[in-house]
Every structure is written in C-alpha cells, then in structure tokens.
C-alpha cells in the first residue's frame, strides 16, 4: 500500500472456471493490489462426463459437439472442461446408466466435485498469497449453493465477507450480500425485493462511516447502465420487438434504494455478465466488471481508494 492509497482488484462471476480463478489469485501481484475481492458466483454449474469407450478411447460432449480422444489427450480435455467452468468426471457406460435411473447420484457427485474443486482453489490461494500481505476475500453469489459457505469459512487466511463487516486497509469497511432478487432460473440464493432490502439494511447498520464504506452487493442496482440484459419469456427465450431483442434492466430495486439511501463510497456488483461498466447514484459509484468466464477471460476492476479523496480512480481490465 502506497501512502494513503489502497488498491483493490475486484472480479466476479467466474462460475467454476479454473483458468479465471488462477488469474484472480495472481492478479494481486500482477496489478500491485492490496486486496483481492471475488464478488460471487464462484462455483460451476455442470458435470461433464468423460466416458470410457472401446479401444482405449474416451468420449465427451462439450460446447454442443461430441469429442473423442485417446489417453494421451485426456489431460488437455480435462483442462478445457475445467477452464470453461465445468467439472470433468471420468466415468463408464454402466455408471451413466445408473445415473439415469438414480438422479440423486448425479447431484451427490456434482456436490463432491464442487466441494473438492473449491477446497483445492482455496489451498492454491493460501499457497500463492502466503507472505505477500495481500488480503483475499471470496464471497458467494446467488448461483452458489449454501453448502459452499462452510468451505469458504474454513480458512484462517482467506475471508468469506458475506453477512459480516470486514475491515480493509486504510480504514475502509465492506459489507456483502450475495443474494439476488428473483431470477428466471430459481437459483439457490434468491429473495423477494422486500426481504433482500431487509438483509441489506441489516448489514448496512453495521457500517460506522458510509463515506469509507464499500457495499459488495452481488446484484447491480435496477435500471442502470450495469444491469442491462435481454428480457426473457416463460420459456427462457429472448423477447423480441420489431425483430430485435428487448433489452431491459434486470437488477434489484432493493439494491438501488440502498445505494441511494446510504450513499456508500463504492458499490461492487456482478450478476449481469454483459453489463460491464459503472453507474452513479447520488455520491455513490457502482461498478460491474462483467464476466467472460467461459472463454477463460478474467474481467476485473482495478480500483484505487484514497483515505482523503475516496475513489481516486478505477480501470476495467481483462486478461
């Protein structure tokens, strides 16, 4: 930390991408950041089976097409799957047949892989960041199952900021709420707007000084430049008008009201991958770095805070 400045690297919505998580951990040294913040939706969404086939071959289905590789090519296939945010699972035709008859086994296997990958990531972060003085915070988002809280809370070095006031360097503080307003996908952490507002209010009450407060709220404020996405119908198809997709604000009114009422120094948001940018509500600046995790690209925001001037500046970065 130089003088009275604090440099934060913020990223979010990596959805299980191994490549993006490794880039996140390395971003502290690369950008000279004092604090790393992962804003939520850390875990992946799908198992990708790699099925043994005759003749020493292995078959999988990825990105809409069938793949068949030999044993020498297996590591590269597993890496491609992991970097895209999925969990590679070596299996057999007999086990696949059993999965079809017992769907609960699929869920159990999925949870084990999610748990194991997240635990391995945390060990990697602890190893890479040990002795650097870089603070690392890993927060859950609406797509992260509730059981991951136990994994995120298992480290003496890494911090799960959700539901607590975290003291950052320079006297800044941060609150975090990983829940979202309702979505079409019925994700694990969703609340009606009134209950989401109550949760934010409860966390905001812990803040001693809003002029030095960061609100890490996974969902962006509604009807702003950072919550714009295609409107979907009941079948998850884009709503069209005159042949073009309808773009609308899909963020949270509770979040917008909180930013307007409390006027924290900074809002950190994600959730809407395609809505990268900033929004200004009163004296508060909100940032959404966006997400391109499926391509292995880590989008982030490098933010410099001054103990005297607040947000000195920020830069949207990708790599």
Automatic annotation (TrEMBL):
Q: Which domain of life is it from?
A: Bacteria
Name the UniProt record assigns to this protein: Metallophosphoesterase
Originating organism: Sphaerisporangium album
Record lineage:
Bacteria, Bacillati, Actinomycetota, Actinomycetes, Streptosporangiales
